[in-house]
Structures are given as C-alpha cells and as structure tokens.
C-alpha cells in the first residue's frame, strides 16, 4: 500500500452487500496513519450502522445532505 500516513481520506459507503467490507478498509487506513471520515447513503445504513464507523474512526459519520 502507498504511504498514506498523515493523509485525509473521505470514505464513501453506498448500499450493497459488500458495504461491510468498508469497515475493514477504514480500520486499515487508520492503522496506516491516515485520518478517515465517512459519508454513507441511507441504503448503506441498512447494512452497516453509522455508529460502527464512528466507533472506529472517532469522527461523526454523515448520512444525509443536511446533517448538522
């Protein structure tokens, strides 16, 4: 994997059965030293809870256009 330490990554998660794999991707990116933020479609939240990503990244997860 390319050196991504100190890089900012925006991970977009959409609805699909493979959405659960993005949890592992986020974990690996963090382990490599990247800062990860997650945005999810409403459909994605049916496969993986936004709280899962929030717990892993320590950042709030955006799930809608007008999230506060």
Automatic annotation (TrEMBL):
**Which protein are we looking at?**
Bifunctional 4'-phosphopantothenoylcysteine decarboxylase/phosphopantothenoylcysteine synthetase
| Cleaved signal peptide residues | none
Pfam families (alphabetical): Flavoprotein (PF02441)
* Tree of life domain: Bacteria
What SUPFAM superfamilies does UniProt report for this protein, alphabetically? Homo-oligomeric flavin-containing Cys decarboxylases, HFCD
Q: Where is the Flavoprotein domain?
A: 8-55
Gene Ontology molecular function: catalytic activity
């Amino acid at each position: 994997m390319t050196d991504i330490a100190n890089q900012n990554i925006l991970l977009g998660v959409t609805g699909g059965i493979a959405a659960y794999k993005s949890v592992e991707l986020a974990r690996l990116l963090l382990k490599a030293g990247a800062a990860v933020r997650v945005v999810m479609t409403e459909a994605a939240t049916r496969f993986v809870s936004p709280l899962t990503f929030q717990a892993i990244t320590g950042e709030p997860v955006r799930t809608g256009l007008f999230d506060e």
